[in-house]
Recover the amino acids of this structure.
């Protein structure tokens, strides 16, 4: 009896694990496409067909690119055939990512801060592992000693989304299900199998991404809140903020890489850099930072909450970086530390802490300088 139960249990576990691989299915009758490995960007229809609602085992396929970064299908290399992405749908979801996420790379917002200030040190403040002066050795084998700018060019932290996948720091995830809840997208994803080399030696290359925070999860909920070309990223809970990212077109990424290679004296065309905009059209890099009422914002560094809109007013508390506030009133405009912005009256949101880690009561109201909110 015990043996029979064990066999049945093993069968159900195996069946469950197997069916979980079928995250996608075909959405119509169609035919496979074939490609020539010697001229990999040449495709044509094959005489092999598939039927609608055929399960697609993602782990048996690889991504097929069109000669650029755009993914056009899932390819079975053993058969030299692929299924076009347009012919595939989610098995578990009817919601898809918004088009804005699919149009290019999403890079750390502080990369734009560094570009605007023409100061690479801003990147090193956030990512000190690139700094050669601190003895970081980028290549675990010591075969190709590169400058930090060269390493940055290959391994900077960025998100890249397709219809069914996303990657961060060369770690790929297959999207299982997408749910839209208010302003947030909840993206349930399964990590693509990686090699032992990815897990060990490559970890030095991936420090600049969120890899270190998500590598231990085989399944994760990536949570995204969009504001125009700004994206706040959370892991498994909106209390776990990974960072703020911005859309960057290919020319901006190119100039960013030139910018990082400070030792190579590569010319940076700052006029070719396209800065991101918020949903309301405001840009943080056009000389002003105008706060908007009724917007939720995040404190970027320790910031004093005051009784009035002046540095001479009484300090109520000092909010820690990451504190969420809601702007309820705009105050006067003032330039502080070279930043031109409004004083704003704010209401502190849930789970706030001061710079010493002590809780700040939800609903606490006071004034702070809007130049240190984002």
């Amino acid at each position: 009896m015990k043996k029979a139960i064990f066999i049945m249990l093993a069968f159900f576990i195996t069946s469950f694990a197997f069916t979980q691989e079928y995250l996608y299915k075909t959405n119509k009758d169609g035919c496979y496409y074939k490609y020539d490995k010697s001229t990999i960007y040449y495709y044509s229809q094959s005489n092999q067909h598939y039927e609608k609602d055929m399960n697609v085992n993602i782990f048996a396929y690889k991504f097929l690119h069109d000669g650029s970064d755009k993914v056009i299908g899932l390819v079975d290399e053993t058969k030299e055939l692929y299924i076009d992405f347009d012919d595939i749908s989610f098995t578990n979801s009817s919601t898809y990512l918004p088009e804005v996420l699919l149009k290019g790379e999403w890079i750390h917002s502080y990369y734009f801060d560094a570009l605007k200030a023409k100061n690479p040190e801003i990147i090193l403040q956030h990512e000190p592992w690139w700094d050669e002066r601190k003895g970081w050795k980028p290549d675990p084998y010591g075969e190709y000693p590169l400058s930090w700018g060269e390493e940055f060019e290959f391994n900077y932290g960025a998100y890249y989304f397709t219809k069914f996948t996303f990657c961060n720091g060369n770690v790929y995830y297959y999207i299982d299900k997408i749910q839209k809840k208010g302003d947030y997208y909840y993206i349930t994803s399964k990590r693509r199998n990686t090699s032992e080399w990815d897990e060990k030696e490559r970890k030095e290359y991936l420090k600049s991404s969120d890899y270190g925070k998500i590598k231990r999860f085989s399944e994760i909920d990536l949570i995204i809140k969009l504001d125009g070309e700004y994206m706040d990223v959370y892991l498994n809970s909106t209390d776990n903020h990974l960072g703020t990212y911005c859309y960057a077109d290919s020319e901006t990424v190119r100039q960013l890489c030139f910018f990082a290679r400070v030792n190579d004296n590569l010319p940076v065309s700052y006029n070719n850099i396209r800065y991101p905009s918020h949903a309301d059209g405001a840009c943080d890099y056009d000389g002003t930072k105008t706060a908007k009422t009724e917007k939720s914002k995040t404190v970027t560094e320790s910031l004093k909450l005051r009784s009035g809109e002046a540095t001479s007013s009484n300090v109520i508390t000092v909010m820690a970086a990451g504190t969420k506030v809601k702007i309820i009133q705009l105050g006067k405009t003032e330039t502080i530390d070279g930043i031109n912005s409004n004083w704003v009256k704010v209401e502190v949101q849930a789970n706030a802490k001061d710079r010493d880690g002590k809780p700040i009561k939800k609903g606490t109201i006071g004034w702070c300088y809007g130049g240190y909110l984002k």
Notes: The two ends are 63 Å apart (CA to CA).
